[in-house]
Write a structure and sequence with these properties.
With 498 residues, this protein is α/β, with parallel strands linked by helices. Among the domains are: 143 residues, Rossmann fold; 176 residues, DNA Cyclobutane Dipyrimidine Photolyase, subunit A, domain 3 (Orthogonal Bundle). It is built from 23 helices and five strands. The chain has a five-stranded parallel beta sheet, with helices on both faces. Helix 13 runs antiparallel to helix 14, helix 14 crosses helix 19 and helix 16 packs across helix 17. The longest helix is centred in the middle third of the chain and has 26 residues. The N terminus is likely disordered.
Length: 498
């Protein structure tokens, strides 16, 4: 459901109290379910349910847990400043939400829908439980700019190629833009007082669920999201196209963890890009358009997941299921730890492991290396990213991995195998990024830093980096790995059926 229909829908029924069930929308600004609930109810209470099974499971890691907990704490502080509170619950969703409704006298639940198949199944269970308890349930498409049914081909089928999807998306934008919603103002006088919400548990720490916190993980919260966006639009947006591929430069927006947790809405980001390109031409407009295109990629991957939920577990391309992936735990461990012997790959993995974030160009490089050089199943890398990224998002993470592995929608051609040496020289030409994360290579000149094994042994000792002792030899030779990948992928994918 979209904003243009919210007022008409909301005024049809008045509720004494409505619950806004938060999931990946931890904010007060530009929040469609919150706005709708504020229009339809006398009072509104915001609730979040902690899922102990998920929080202790192997498909979630410390960076995203810390980011969500810090965002919840920041949101609670905002609500308390408005004399309300966050109803923080823990347990089974289908039990906790009806119980909260009974406690506060709520007659309706509002929430933002999800494209994750497991979330959709959970939402169906919760809806049945809430409706059985006499609650009205209202779901809204709020995590993407356009929902899965909003941007379709002329025949009504979903797109599987990005470029025509983007053209239709942009045409839809011209027809029906969705500017940010002033939900904070709408709910300001509607929030249920804290005393009526009653006692609610404290926001936990990551350690409470077996995760180690770190000050190096991305900072969370709605205020931080808007600060980042404002700084990016002011200082970074108009160099974005030039710098976004250079990992040693702060050339990206860093908004992905905030979009994942919903500490900022996608509408705010899209319209920041639109405002930035107003009145500018040439390269300045190209920069804004390039960032907007990246936001459209996010919508694209979410609509792929919505229409083809099997991609959560299987490749989009049927023929790719026959790929004979290697079973090499030692190679996978070397990739995870940043011990492949290829500096740009190893530096990227160490950045990920230490900070809970990785530059997008590096995500493509390491994904290509895992799937093409090592012939390992893309799902192993996808799962590892889920455990290590603060922005771990099933749709975007899965889409990126399948693209890099040449098994998804609109994939990179299987015969394109990223050369990690050339990628390093092109996007980290002075070795600045590599030296940051691989101190052992700091003494090497830029000409050698991306292939240190070519340095003569005596010079290696002088530089303080003996290959095979101080830094590993390449786990596989590039030319050999490329030819092997072409043979294996070519045999499997030459008969694509999807």
């Amino acid at each position: 459901m979209r904003a243009s229909r919210v007022v008409q829908c909301s005024l049809a029924t008045r509720h004494p109290v409505a619950i806004v069930w938060l999931r990946r929308d931890l904010r007060l600004d530009d929040h469609l379910p919150l706005h709708a609930a504020a229009l339809a109810a006398e009072r509104v209470v915001l609730a979040f349910v902690l899922d102990p099974v998920l929080l202790r499971g192997d498909r979630i890691g410390a960076p995203i847990v810390q980011f969500f907990f810090e965002s919840l704490a920041a949101l609670r502080a905002q609500l308390q400043s408005l004399d309300s509170d966050l109803a923080l619950l823990e347990g089974a969703f289908a039990d906790e939400l009806p119980a909260l409704a009974a406690r506060v006298g709520a007659s309706a639940i509002y929430y933002g829908s999800d494209t994750d198949p497991s979330a959709r199944a959970r939402d169906a269970d919760v809806t049945r439980a809430c409706e059985a308890a006499g609650l009205a349930v209202h779901a809204f498409s709020d995590q993407v700019y356009y929902g899965a049914r909003d941007v379709l081909r002329a025949d009504g089928e979903p797109y599987s190629v990005y470029t025509p999807y983007r053209r239709r998306w942009e045409a839809r934008l011209a027809e029906e833009p969705h500017p940010p919603i002033d939900s904070r103002a709408a709910c300001a006088q509607r929030l249920l007082p804290a005393a009526q919400i009653g006692a609610t548990r404290a926001v936990p720490q990551p350690e409470d669920f077996g995760h180690a916190s770190s000050p190096r993980f991305p900072q969370a919260g709605e205020a931080e999201a808007h600060r980042l966006l404002d700084d990016f639009v002011k200082d970074g947006l108009f160099i974005y196209a030039d710098c976004r591929n250079e990992p040693a430069v702060e050339g990206t927006s860093r908004m992905s963890p905030h979009l994942r947790a919903g500490t900022i809405g996608i509408r705010a980001c899209v319209h920041a890009a639109l405002r930035a390109r107003e009145g500018v031409r040439g390269h300045s407009r190209t920069n804004a358009d390039t960032w907007l295109s990246e936001l459209i990629w996010r919508d694209f991957y979410h609509q792929v997941l919505a229409h083809h939920p099997h991609v959560a577990d299987e490749p989009f391309i049927d023929a790719a299921r026959a790929l004979p992936y290697a079973d090499d735990d030692a190679a996978f461990a070397a990739w995870c730890d940043g011990r492949t012997g290829y500096p740009i790959v190893d530096a990227a993995m160490r950045q990920l492991n230490a900070t809970g974030w990785m530059h997008n160009r590096l995500r493509m490089i390491v994904a290509s290396f895992l799937t093409k050089h090592l012939l390992l199943d893309y799902r192993r890398g996808e799962r590892y990213f889920e455990q290590r990224l603060a922005d771990a998002d099933l749709a975007a993470n899965n889409g990126g991995w399948q693209w890099s592995a040449s098994v998804g929608t609109d994939p990179v051609p299987y015969f394109r195998v990223f050369n990690p040496i050339l990628q390093g020289k092109t996007f980290d030409p002075h070795g600045t990024f590599v030296r940051t994360w691989l101190p052992v290579l700091r003494g090497l000149p830029a000409a050698d830093i991306h292939q240190p094994w070519n340095v003569p042994p005596l010079m290696q000792a002088q530089y303080g980096c003996v290959i095979g002792t101080d830094y590993p030899e390449p786990i596989v030779e590039h030319a050999f790995a490329r030819e092997r990948a072409l043979a294996v992928y070519g045999a499997a994918l030459k008969k694509k059926t999807r």
